[in-house]
């Protein structure tokens, strides 16, 4: 058995936390031979609820759970953390503009970025799930100047998985028959789920579906899936979001399958002409605990237009919080 690693999770008493923590503790994220110490962060009013979640984690008697603690102080929760999942965020309240939401979260994520800069492991892997996820990751990154900027990522894996499910349904195949699908850009309604390089059961996906379905059904369904779930369930996606967070961290750490790639929002290095520095979702391959952008994919005008629209939104989000960035 390996030595335990430390996994910090914020928003631990929330909906996603309630699904996520049990999956991490059971070994789904880092493998069946990797013990984990969970370090939970919540706001003071949620500390009682966190105690309840911890009681349930104890009651699962997970063989891989090597330690469990909770705090309302980021510097305690992030101490020596090897993995940090930033799930807790301020939800949009009544009458709140997008700009207010960005600013409210900028306050949270700058404090948390500073804390991880001070106390986290030097090769920590950080995933922002709380919305606006991409820009929250950027804010944390900019407040953690002593950490490698590439430690900071945001989650578009749920969008990627949603796109896989839609394409599998349409083509009468299984998600495991599909490779090389990409979600570009922001985790928002401007994201661009792209099947132009996707392969379904060995055939080009674009030969199996028509352009009208792509434009009128597939892209808007994936973009609006979060809203459709809120409408149906009365609450936002939680178990599927937790599952996507597990997938993101697992593939980053243990590697992507041979012949395939996944979508991760990572600091842009200018690949595909995307503005450098923003946290933009690209097709990536992971191995040895590192991710690399898949290069040299052909980009047609249809894709370029959509990749640019979602890039533009991220540039605007960055500009809206610029005055709060160090
Ligand atoms: P909940 O409101 O159920 O839980 C959020 C928890 O975070 C609460 O318990 C709250 O007390 C805590 N929290 C708030 N501020 C905190 C802080 N400063 N430090 C520590 N904890 C704090 O929301 P939930 O449904 O779990 O969703 C969490 C976040 O994920 C939301 O921002 C949501 O928008 C976002 N999502 C992101 C997705 C993605 O694909 N990137 C998809 C699902 C989800 O909508």
TrEMBL record:
InterPro entries: L-lactate/malate_DH (IPR001557), Lactate/malate_DH_C (IPR022383), Lactate/malate_DH_N (IPR001236), Lactate_DH/Glyco_Ohase_4_C (IPR015955), Malate_DH_AS (IPR001252), Malate_DH_type2 (IPR010945), NAD(P)-bd_dom_sf (IPR036291). Substrate binds at residues 92, 98, 131, 162. CDD domains: MDH_chloroplast-like. HAMAP family: Malate_dehydrog_2. Pfam families: Ldh_1_C, Ldh_1_N. SUPFAM superfamilies: LDH C-terminal domain-like, NAD(P)-binding Rossmann-fold domains. Catalyzes the reversible oxidation of malate to oxaloacetate. This is Malate dehydrogenase. Keywords: NAD, Oxidoreductase, Tricarboxylic acid cycle. NAD(+) binds at residues 11-17, 105, 112, 129-131. The active site is at 187 (proton acceptor). Belongs to the LDH/MDH superfamily. MDH type 2 family. It comes from the Bacteria. PANTHER family: MALATE DEHYDROGENASE (PTHR23382). Residues 156-322 form the Lactate/malate dehydrogenase C-terminal domain. GO terms for molecular function: L-malate dehydrogenase (NAD+) activity. It comes from Spiribacter insolitus. It catalyses: (S)-malate + NAD(+) = oxaloacetate + NADH + H(+). Gene3D superfamilies: Lactate dehydrogenase/glycoside hydrolase, family 4, C-terminal, NAD(P)-binding Rossmann-like Domain.
């Amino acid at each position: 058995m390996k030595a335990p690693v430390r996994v910090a999770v914020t928003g631990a008493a929330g909906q996603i936390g309630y699904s996520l923590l049990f999956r991490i503790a059971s070994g789904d994220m880092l493998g069946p031979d990797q013990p984990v110490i969970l370090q939970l962060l919540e706001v003071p009013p949620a500390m009682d609820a966190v105690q309840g979640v911890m009681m349930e984690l104890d009651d699962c008697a997970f063989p891989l759970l090597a330690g469990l603690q909770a705090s309302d102080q980021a510097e305690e929760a992030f101490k020596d953390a090897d993995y940090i999942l930033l799930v807790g965020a301020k939800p949009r309240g009544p009458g709140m503009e997008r700009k207010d939401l960005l600013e409210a979260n900028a306050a949270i994520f700058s404090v948390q970025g500073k804390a991880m800069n001070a106390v986290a492991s030097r090769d920590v892997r950080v995933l922002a799930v709380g919305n606006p996820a991409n820009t929250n990751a950027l804010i944390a990154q900019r407040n953690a100047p002593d950490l490698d900027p590439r430690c900071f990522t945001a989650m578009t894996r749920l969008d990627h998985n949603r796109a896989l499910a839609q394409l599998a349904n349409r083509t009468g195949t299984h998600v495991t028959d599909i490779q090389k699908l990409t979600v570009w850009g922001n985790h928002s309604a401007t994201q661009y789920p792209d099947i132009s390089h996707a392969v379904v059961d060995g055939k080009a996906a674009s030969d199996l579906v028509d352009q009208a379905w792509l434009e009128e059904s597939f892209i808007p369904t994936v973009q609006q899936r979060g809203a459709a779930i809120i409408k149906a369930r009365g609450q936002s996606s939680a178990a599927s979001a937790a599952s996507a967070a597990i997938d993101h961290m697992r593939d980053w750490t243990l590697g992507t399958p041979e012949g395939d790639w996944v979508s991760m929002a990572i600091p842009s290095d200018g690949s595909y002409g995307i503005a450098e520095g923003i946290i933009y979702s690209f097709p990536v391959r992971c191995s040895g605990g590192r991710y690399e952008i898949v290069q040299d994919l052909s980009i047609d005008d249809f894709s370029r237009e959509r990749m640019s629209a979602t890039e533009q939104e991220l540039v605007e989000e960055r500009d809206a919080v610029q005055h709060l960035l160090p």
